[in-house]
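Quick one, T. Sequence first:
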Amino acid sequence: MSTGAVAAVDLGATSGRVIVGRVGANELDLETVGRFPNRPVETVNGLHWDLLGLYRGVVGGLTEAVRSEPQIASIGIDSWAVDYGLFRGGRMLGTPFHYRDERSAAGVEATHAVVPFEELYRRNGLQFLPFNTVYQLAAEKHGGLLDLADTMLLVPDLIGYFLTGESVAERTNASTTGLLDVSTGEWDTELASRLGIPTGILPRLVGAGERVGSLLPYARRELGTDRAIDVVAVGSHDTASAVVAVPMQAESAAYISCGTWGLVGVELETPVLTDAAREANFTNEGGVDGRVRFLHNVMGLWLLSESVRTWERGGDTIDLPTLLAAAADVTAPVAVFDANDPRFIAPGDMPERIAEWCRENGAPVPASHAEFARSIVESLAQAFADAVHTAAELSGRTVESIHIVGGGSLNELLCQLTADRSGLPVLAGPVEATAIGNVLVQARAQGFVEGDLEALRALVAQAFAPSRFAPRA
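Structure tokens:
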């Protein structure tokens, strides 16, 4: 094995980045070479992603990556789940919708009228989320584009298509669509047909670590390289990549990948498809190396970021570290609200929605920005603790510690309160878990490192020692 470099494209709901990873048997180093915003666009027909703007940011970041490391071995792409673009003859049909767009409600009703949720869960193992791809596609039927399309590409595969011309679906992200058979890992074409979704739009499936294709000549020119650099499939669902980089002993730990969403769960070898798991709204999503991410979605730091946006639209200037410090000093009782309440999904006045929940439930309404922030963090910590204990109960695992990775691992108040409310030690970090997991899967494919996920996680623990938060009485 030799040390080498790869480029990770990591696309989040509010921003994207390109990171160069230098990896060897005892080396794991990251350098961020490009950052760019990801701003949704609202038009007359709903909320959309600016995919071409996002692609422009990716190209700019990869140009810097090639300039920094001319011998980059490969490129890997991850992003959020469920959203997609439709294509015909290689041309994108319209601008992809944002999962927070309200159109999916009609798709939920139409889908469950044909296939009850109980049957869906047995087939795909997914928790109910109103924006799962299967519901979006059901809503899409009313717009006419679905009948025109010959290909559907999820966001990271769509970016990969722009670079290579290859149409694929990476399995960890395909598992979030609701159209992948949870038992076989193949497309459930019988289910798609029953729902009126053309099976021909479902692309070839690939696994993390497989080569997708090499840069097209125009892409090479854009990046300023004459090398046909390979694009390699990674855990293209960002949580799948993040879980690769959780420095845990999987048999005794739970993980929380915390950013816009908080994904709370355990890693298993086989799915849990019991009635109890369905009723608890736990999902079985694909992980790297055939692992199962048995988890529950919690609203996450979206609650805080959308509150900050609301206050700033009102003319306030908010410094997040100062706000969190003030929240930590709050001594008055604050409401612990249901962070999973559906009213919190859509963009809008989050503080007013929280206040509305408090009034409806006889809880104290926060009286200041600091009290709102403290209420949000306490509520997230309680939701995380509840989800961890439920995951342990449903899976039969004994959980002895919780790992928090992603941006939420920097929020010391959240980490401490999660430890307090769960009664379990919390190990925080790494922050860039998603990019690290992306890099490590590529590095293994290139022969720079070897071994199973446990070996990769040992390298993460060596390079990024986590911070420990012990539960307080």
